[in-house]
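INTERNAL AUDIT FORM
Audit reference: QA-55
Scope: verify that the stored structure record matches its stored sequence.
Auditor: D.O.
Record contents follow.
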Amino acid sequence: MSYGPQTIFNMFNNADLRFPSIDDGNGGQIEITHGRFISLMESKNRQVRKDAFMGLYHTYASFRNTLAAAYSANVKKKNSLHQSPEICLHYGSPSGCP
């Protein structure tokens, strides 16, 4: 079984994607990461929370076409698996099976 779309997203999300650095509220800079995001969102400093949120989601938004293509490929893959003759024979003939 192929894991193409999921593998593409995981590599993009976990290896290639870089988030900006923001003011940590104490005069320093801190890079937003997946691991730091929740603690930044729990900061007592409202500006830190806002900057963390905007930094993370603006970064994802800048790749909206890439993410949409990966999502679309994943949906098409899953739909094709559910319409395969093997699935129809095993589970009966649900609507949409050939």
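Auditor finding: record pair retrieved intact. The first strand starts at residue 21 and ends at 23.
Action required: none
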